[in-house]
Design goal:
single chain, about 90 residues, alpha+beta, four-stranded antiparallel sheet
Length: about 90
């Protein structure tokens, strides 16, 4: 992994956490919200960040920071298929 890729990984993790911090404690975000927040360019280039955002969310699940949900319920990130939401882990 290059330094540039590591920097983007950290940037995506920060984007997820910052977006969640701006919302209520039980609010969720879509991975596309974080991709758009981290993307510097114009147009829909943020779409290329969707899988990296999902990977960032999985790392944050492992760290105990967030949960990945489908239909409002936490799911195993390794088994999640289709649309997901991300929320802060209940403490």
């Amino acid at each position: 992994m290059t330094e540039s890729e590591r920097q983007m990984d950290r940037r995506l993790e920060r984007a997820i956490l910052e977006l969640l911090d701006r919302r209520g404690p039980t609010a969720t975000i879509c991975p596309s919200d974080a991709a758009r927040a981290a993307y510097d360019g114009e147009g829909d280039g943020w779409r290329a960040l969707m899988e990296p955002v999902r990977r960032a969310a999985r790392r944050l699940v492992t760290a105990g920071e967030v949960e990945i949900t489908q239909a409002g319920r936490p799911v195993d990130p390794a088994k999640a298929r289709g649309p997901i939401r991300i929320r802060r882990r209940a403490r």
